[in-house]
Amino acid sequence: MTTDYITYEFPLNERMRLFIRLEQLFLQLDHFRASQQVWDKRATINTLVDILQIFSRHDLKAETLKELERHSNRLHQLSNDENVDTQLLRQVLDDLTVVSKALYAKNGKIDLSSIKSHLFHSITQRSSIPGGAYSFDLPAYHYWLQQPAAIQEQELNLWMEQFSNIRTAIELILQFLRLSGNSYLETAKKGFYQHTLDPIQPYQLVILSVDASIPYYAEISGGKHRVTTRFMTPELKLDRAKQTSKDISFQVRYCIF
After folding, report:
1. Which of 27, 135, 196, 237 is 20 to 30 Å from 181 at the Cα level?
2. Is the domain of 247 the same as that of 153?
3. Nearest CA to 71 among 179, 181, 223, 177?
């Protein structure tokens, strides 16, 4: 029988934090977009606003291109290894090249201003107010939510195409990263585990898996020098969560690419 695990990911630098946050928002966007219910359409728009606000605070195009270039250089180094599947490697490099060219071809920074829609900007301006996009606030939005799905999809596609290439690039980068590194079985003595990282190596992500039947959650902290994990008891009523005194076994992968 296969054991179920709860998996925790902890990014070790700001770029990976940003990419993983966006990845989760993209998946959330897909989930809500699949439904035709009005409340799910509202959730779709709210998620889209969150995504584009992140884009407005960061130069995602530049950050993504830097990471694509780093991955491409690393893969070219691997091409000299006789144990590497050269055909597969060539396909991966071609995919990276296609995405990079598409990003270079996109002029300017991608942010809220790149969406040419008065309605969307009106929704964005009201999004900071709790419940601020109700029918009496934005009747045009209320009207849009009642339109046929085909009309809504057409507009959503226009709004989302701004970041479609960056989404593809982030998915490729995180896919490569999660497949890198070896998995180890470790034990947190009395709920505590610390691992020292080689600062010369560009570790980017820690993936930790725990048997789902264990009644504790993993609280991870760290940076480029070390990673610390504490297994905590869930908070019950007014009692604060605290570190368990039991030894906990878990799987851990330190991802580097």
Report:
1. 27
2. no
3. 177
